[in-house]
Write a structure and sequence with these properties.
Strand order of the largest sheet: 1-9-8-7-2-3-6
Number of helices: 6
Radius of gyration: 24 Å
Strand content: 25-35%
């Protein structure tokens, strides 16, 4: 093997079908990136892009050295590492990191693995993946829905099993696995993660297996570490950049669409003091980063009786739906009137239409106001969700967009639950 090639020793589990891989192909005026896209009715499209000359050169460098010819299949994993199969028998090589998203087109229609619908909204778990590119790295949800694994072949007749629980611990692995099992089911099975960190896989319906969107892998989800190449002496190889991937939206790069629900933002423990009349605090800006990756969100708020209080709860739930991972909302309040029960039932039915189950109950001794997620975040709410003032006019700016709505004076504390230390919330 030439010294210029770097064997890729991370996860190389990929789909064996042609639709599950990218290809560098010969075009009229040079090379292009191509993918095969197939719909449920069997229609296949072959969108291409010539906007990735650096990526094409990376793939062709490996192909040229290993096989003596350019072009052929390649993969990009969730860390944006380019993985190229080559040789006979096939081996996998690391071509480098490619920090741009791939968007291909055919007859003016764009195709990408970005999990958004035509209106730009994040797909809901269980939505069809039909008509979307299927390249991605394969993993297996283990039976019981409590762990995730992949296998690396070390040599003919020898392989190594990687379990997420061995890397991050059983509880954290279970949380990520449960997020996938919500769609795949506890029987387990294979799924894929693409360069957009979209999770998709097959789901059986009426004895037919169709590909569906499962969710989005976020920074809050426990996951396998990024593979780093090693030098011959075992030290990290300095040639490629093994640093954690952060996709950059380079100016003028048509392959860099808008980010997916603030992917890359890492929330921190903090104490937020909001002054009376202060604006700029929408539900998304306050809580969005802390809800990412959560499957279960619990809300304790003793005062959810009046219409505007329940409207605030609805706004919070709408944010959870947009994030696309939350499957259960558990609510505890102090009392439930006939009027509030009817409104909560309306919210519950609406959430069910988006695959989110809601439960609620009353506790006459409830006093504290807080939000807790199954990803380990606790949020102490001084006023609960009732932090927004009534607008002067319902046709004024701020009536519908909470970012422009003045707030009441309040304090919100964001802290890690059960992390072995107490956060200093002093001034």
């Amino acid at each position: 093997m030439p010294d210029s090639l770097i064997p890729f020793e991370g996860n190389t589990n990929t789909s064996v079908v042609k639709q599950g891989k990218y290809r560098v192909v010969h075009a009229r005026d040079g090379f292009a990136v191509e993918v095969i896209v197939e719909t449920l009715d069997g229609i296949r499209s072959f969108p291409t892009s010539r906007e990735h000359p650096e990526l094409i050169a990376m793939v062709n460098n490996v192909k040229g050295v290993s096989a003596g010819r350019d072009g052929g299949p390649f993969y990009i994993n969730e860390w944006h590492q380019v993985i190229v199969p080559a040789g006979d028998p096939v081996k996998y090589y690391y071509a480098g990191d490619y920090p741009h998203y791939i968007v291909l087109s055919l007859d003016g229609v764009e195709f990408s693995g970005r999990p958004h619908d035509d209106a730009g909204n994040l797909l809901k778990p269980g939505d069809p993946w039909s008509g979307r590119p299927r390249p991605g790295m394969g993993y297996v949800l283990m039976a019981g829905g409590a762990d995730i694994r992949f296998i690396v072949e070390l040599s003919p007749g020898r392989e190594k099993l990687y379990r997420l629980s061995k890397e991050v611990g059983e509880e954290r692995a279970r949380r990520t696995a449960r997020k996938i099992a919500m769609v795949k089911g506890n029987a387990g099975g294979s799924f894929y993660v693409n360069e957009y960190r979209a999770i998709f896989g097959s789901q059986k319906s009426e004895n037919i297996y169709n590909y569906v969107f499962i969710g989005l892998l976020t920074d809050e989800d426990a996951w396998f570490s990024k593979w780093s190449p090693k030098a011959p002496d075992g030290a990290p190889d300095a040639r490629p950049d093994p640093s954690p991937f952060q996709p950059d939206a380079v100016a003028g790069n048509p392959a860099a669409p808008a980010p997916l629900v603030e992917v890359g933002l890492r929330p921190n423990e903090k104490k937020l003091e909001i002054a009376d009349g202060e604006t700029g605090h929408s539900m998304e800006s306050l809580f969005g980063a802390y809800m990412r990756g959560a499957c279960i969100v619990s809300i304790e708020d003793p005062f959810l009786i009046r219409q505007h209080q329940l409207a605030n709860l609805l706004r919070f739930c709408e944010m959870l739906v947009r994030l696309g991972t939350v499957r259960s909302v558990n609510l505890v309040t102090r009392e439930l009137s006939d009027e509030s029960l009817g409104r909560l039932e309306t919210i519950k039915r609406s959430l069910a239409g988006y695959g989110v189950e809601m439960s609620y109950k009353a506790s006459g001794t409830l006093h504290d106001r807080q939000i807790v997620t199954d990803t380990g975040w606790g949020i102490s709410l001084g006023r609960g969700l009732d932090i927004y003032k009534r607008p002067d006019d319902w046709l004024a700016v701020g009536a519908t967009d909470f970012a422009f709505r003045p707030c009441y004076e309040t304090t919100i504390i964001f802290h890690r639950m059960g992390n072995g230390h107490a956060m200093n919330v002093g001034g």
